[in-house]
Amino acid sequence: MINIKENELMSSHTSFRIGGPARYFVVVNNTAEINEAIGFVKDKKIDHKIIGGGSNLLVADGGYNGLIIKYFGGKMIIDGDIIEIDAGVPLVKAMHEALKNNLSGLEWAIGIPGTIGGAVCNNAGAFGGDMSQIVESVKILRDGKIIELENDDCGFGYRESAFKSGAVSGIILSVRLKMKKVSVDELATIKVKMEKNLADRLSKSAEGGSAGSTFRNFVLTEEEIAKFKEKFPQLPDQFVAYKKIPAAWLIEECGLKGKKIGDAMVSEKHAGKITNVGHATAEHVVMLISVVKQKVRSNFSLQLMEEIEYLGF
To answer: Is 211 in contact with 264 (CB distance < 8 Å)?
Structure first.
């Protein structure tokens, strides 16, 4: 039997530590409980939203007029190089279990919060890896039926998927991951690299609460990046080689590190992150995002796009 609460503050369930009350709120960790929650939604004729760790979410100050279903927890089964994992399992837990079984493919997730379901929805990634590279199939719940989708059906793109865009409707229940079996020596090399990546991530950890990177990086063609470099020669050569312009670099070039509106601040450690350094409201964050986008557009003729998801606006 699920325990549905009323007027639960979403600031307690997001890494931003921002958000007004959800009209209804429930924590579930299996398919039966999800079905029960969906039954409640149908009876009440209200909207609903599935969340995991709330690590990529900005919730409005006015809250959300529906049911928030927090899918957190679940099981995972490892069989050879295949991992069957429930969507509510924390991403970092999955990574550690994979390594214990000499499986490579999730090590890029070191230090990343959230759940497997959220990682699939956002095609989470770092250090050259992402979910699209290891997802074999995804089981979703749609209209009371369980449907299995193959990787090609998921519409994966840069920090994007068909689930996030709404092209595919349904609740992500579980994921089948195809990993790579590695030797003890290979695993040792992977762990050394992970330690370096974690140190790099920690050095850029934002002050206060944040939802990680606020904006998407720009992935360009070779011709596009060459033209940009010609116009803006200060662009580091490494970005040209990767054909990628980090949002953080653009924002820092605009002199916006430390820029504040209320208690929302452009991180002084990593300009691509907007942080809650006190009692920031969602309105403060939205206003600061607008300022950042306008400045980057004015200076570089590029339109930043948010990586975070808005809820209740």
So the answer is: no
CA dist 237 and 11 (Å) reads 40
Q: Which helix (H) or strand (E) holds 228?
A: helix 222-231
Within 8 A by CB and 6+ apart from 192, the residues are none
Length of the chain, in residues: 313
Sketch out the chain's domains with CATH numbers.
Answer: 5-71 (3.30.43.10), 76-181 (3.30.465.10), 207-311 (3.90.78.10)
In angstroms, rounded to a whole number, what is the distance separating the alpha carbons of residues 275 and 9?
19
Q: How far apart are CA 200 and CA 14, in angstroms?
A: 24
Q: Which residues contact 265 (CB under 8 A, 6 or more apart)?
A: 207, 208, 258, 259, 274, 275, 277, 280, 288
Taking only the tens place, the pLDDT of each residue in 89-139 is 999 999 999 999 999 999 999 988 889 999 999 999 888 899 999 999 999
* Catalytic residue list: 159, 213, 307
Strand partners, 266: 274
Helix (H, G, I), strand (E, B) or coil at 22: strand
Q: Which contiguous run of DSSP H or E holds residue 137?
A: strand 135-142
